[in-house]
């Protein structure tokens, strides 16, 4: 979706969901409509709990290591998206969530998404330092490596932030 279409989408989606509530409410009644909304919410929560945040962590780890998230990660990720759509009240989001469960739709999504993956790597972050560290960006300085010159004209010199003084005082 183009970014210029986003405000229109954000305005029209709730209106479409309200229209869906009205149409379904007229067709099956108020209590049955509320029961369907609650049922989709509960199913969405159960799916989200089952898939958990683990799939998102695996995708993040793959992305940080420079590997493309594979097709085997797409199915659980799509199920997480579907469960989030089920949690959102509305029948249009529920229909989209149910479409995600169809394997042909997931394959179509994979074809669309896989061509748009961009891996931005940092060769320094993945290399291990000679000292046997973890490859983090921590710089350890001794007292001789860093000192503050007394002659610098910093607006923060002499002030201790967080000691009850504010920057505007």
Number of helices: 7
> Helical content, roughly?
55-70%
Radius of gyration: 26 Å
How many strand elements? 0
Shape summary: elongated
Strand/helix succession? HHHHHHH
Strand percentage, roughly? under 5%
Which descriptors apply to this entry?
single chain, 169 residues, mainly alpha
Quick recap:
Helix content is 59%, strand content 0%.
Written overview of the protein:
The chain has 169 residues and is an all-alpha fold. The chain has a domain of 83 residues. It has 7 helices and no strands. Helix 1 crosses helix 2 and helix 2 packs antiparallel against helix 4. The chain is elongated and about 80 Å long.
How do the strands and helices of this protein lay out in sequence?
Layout: H1 6-28, H2 30-51, H3 54-65, H4 71-87, H5 91-100, H6 103-114, H7 123-126
């Amino acid at each position: 979706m183009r970014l210029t279409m986003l405000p229109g989408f954000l305005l029209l989606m709730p209106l479409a969901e309200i229209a869906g509530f009205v149409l379904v409410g007229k067709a099956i009644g108020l209590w049955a409509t509320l029961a369907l909304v609650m049922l989709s919410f509960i199913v969405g929560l159960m799916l989200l709990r089952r898939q958990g945040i683990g799939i998102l962590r695996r995708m993040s780890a793959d992305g940080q290591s420079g590997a493309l998230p594979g097709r085997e990660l797409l199915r659980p990720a799509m199920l997480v998206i579907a469960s989030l759509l089920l949690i959102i009240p509305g029948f249009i989001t529920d229909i989209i969530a149910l479409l995600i469960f169809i394997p042909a739709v997931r394959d179509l999504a994979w074809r669309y998404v896989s061509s748009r993956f961009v891996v931005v790597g940092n060769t320094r972050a993945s290399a291990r330092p000679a000292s046997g560290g973890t490859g983090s960006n921590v710089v350890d300085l001794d007292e001789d490596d860093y000192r503050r010159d007394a002659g610098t004209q910093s607006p923060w010199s002499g002030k201790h932030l967080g000691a009850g003084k504010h920057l505007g005082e």
